[in-house]
Amino acid sequence: MRARTEPSKPAQNMNPPMDSSTLQPPPEHLAPYSEQIDALIESGRVFWNRGWSVGTSSNYSAVVARDPLTLLVTASGKHKGQLTRSDFVLCDANGQPTLPDQPKSSAETLLHCLAAEDPTVGAVLHTHSVWSTILSDRFAPQGGILLEGYEMLKGLRGVTTHQHREWLPIFENTQDIPELAQRVRAASADGDRPFPHGYIIRRHGIYTWGQDVAEAFRQIEILEFLLECVARSATM
User: Fold this and answer.
1) How sure is the predictor about 24, in pLDDT bands with cuts at 50, 70 and 90?
2) pLDDT tens figures, 159-215
3) Whether residue 23 has pLDDT greater than 60
4) Owning domain of residue 28
5) 74 in any annotated domain
6) Is 93 exposed, middle or buried, given 0-12, 13-18 or 19+ CB atoms closer than 10 A?
7) What does residue 55 show for φ and ψ, rounded to 5 degrees?
8) pLDDT value for 22
9) Please, what sign has the CA dihedral across residues 75, 120, 155, 143?
10) Separation of alpha carbons 195 and 39, rounded Å
11) Residue 196 covered by a domain
C-alpha cells in the first residue's frame, strides 16, 4: 500500500488575525447588503482555515437584485481570510461596476454573472483547493470527474439518493475569461451531460452555486469532501 500524501493547509482552528478595518461598517452604497457581505466574509475565513482559499486566490459573490441583475463580488487581490466589509464591488450582468470609485472586481466576475443568469442561483463560490487542482489534471483527458455511490452526494441540492451520478466537467484554464465563459455556457446547454452543481477549471479550482450563500457554502463542502475521497482512494 502506498503512503497517502496529506495536502498542506493552515493549522486547524486558527483564523487569520482580524484588524479594526474588518469590523468597520460597510461603505454607504454597500450598507443594504450587510447580511450577504458578512456571510461571504465568514465563508472566506472558513475556506482559508481549510486550505481551500489561501492567499488572494478564490472569489465569491451574492445576487442582490434581479431586475436588473446585480451581483456583489469580492474585490480583486484580497486575502480571502482577511476580507473586510469594504472589499466588495457591485457589478451588472456583464461584470461591469454599477457605481464609480469602487475597487476592481475579481478577474473572473463574468463567470459569476453566467451562473447567476439562472434565477435559482443566489450565490456563487469559487475555491482553489489542493485536491481539486490535482484531480483536474489527472482527469482532464476524460473531460471531467464522475462522482457516484457516495452518501455525501445527498448534501447537494435536489439529490435524494447515494445512487446519484454527479458529473463535474473540467475546463482548460485561460486568462481569456469571456472565452472561458462561452465554453462553460455551451457545455451547460448540452443536455447529455448536465452539471447542475458546479465545474472545475484545470489546475485552478471549483465553481459552485446555490440559492443563497449558505447553500453554496454547503455544496463547496460536499464537493471538496468527495474530491478528497477520490484522490485519497487513488493512493491506497
Assistant:
1) confident
2) 999 999 999 999 999 999 999 999 999 999 887 778 889 999 999 999 999 999 999
3) yes
4) 21-234
5) yes
6) middle
7) 60, -135
8) 57
9) negative
10) 25
11) yes
**Residue 8 belongs to a domain:** no
Q: Give the CATH number of the domain where residue 104 resides.
A: 3.40.225.10
pLDDT of residue 11: 41
Residue 2 or 188, more confident: 188
Residue 3: inside a domain: no
Q: How far apart are CA 38 and CA 8, in angstroms?
A: 27
SS (H, E, C) the chain: CCCCCCCCCCCCCCCCCCCHHHHCCCCHHHHHHHHHHHHHHHHHHHHHHCCCCCCCCCEEEEEEEECCEEEEEEECCCCCCCCCCCCEEEECCCCCECCCCCCCECCCHHHHHHHHCCCCCCEEEEECCHHHHHHHHHCHHHCEEEEECCHHHHHCCCCCCCCCEEEEEEECCCCCHHHHHHHHHHHHCCCCCCCCCEEEECCCEEEEEECCHHHHHHHHHHHHHHHHHHHHHHCC
Q: How many domains does the chain have?
A: 1
More confident site: 18 or 165:
165
217 grid coordinates = 457554502
**DSSP bridge partners of 145:** 168
Residue 13 has pLDDT above 50, yes or no: no
> Do residues 113 and 205 lie in contact, with contact meaning Cβ atoms separated by under 8 Å?
no
Cα angle: 64, vertex 30, 127; to 5 degrees: 65
Average pLDDT along the chain: 90
